[in-house]
Amino acid sequence: MPQSYSQRVHFYYCILVALKINAKTKKSGGIRGKNNFLLKWLRNAQNNTIFPPDITSEIEWLRAKIISSGPDTDLEPMLQYVYDTAKRAETLRLGS
Asked: Fewest beta carbons within 10 Å, which of 10, 25, 45, 55?
């Protein structure tokens, strides 16, 4: 559990950076294109075990959230919020 916040912060940082890079390098696919990218990115992250096992539940939750929210729901603000919250929790835990 001690590394839980650090791992979560790192995971959300990576997914947000991947979204920004995808937006800069691809033609705009709109929100549907962004969601398709996220689903593929998450599947690759899970299949290639890029992140620690603790993050697997986070990946599964995000994939389910994207699918249940529908193809036209922009989840990037939610991802940013989760990242910001995890970062604050990590900072508080470290006492910085």
From this structure: 25
Angle between helices 4-25 and 30-47 (to 10 degrees): 130
Dump the DSSP string for 31-88.
Answer: HHHHHHHHHHHHHHHHHTT-S-GGGHHHHHHHHHHHHHH-TT---HHHHHHHHHHHHH
Residue 94 has pLDDT above 80, yes or no: no
Q: How far apart are CA 26 and CA 31, in angstroms?
A: 13
List the one residue out of 59, 52, 65 whose CA is nearest residue 6.
Answer: 52
- pTM for the predicted model, two decimal places: 0.85
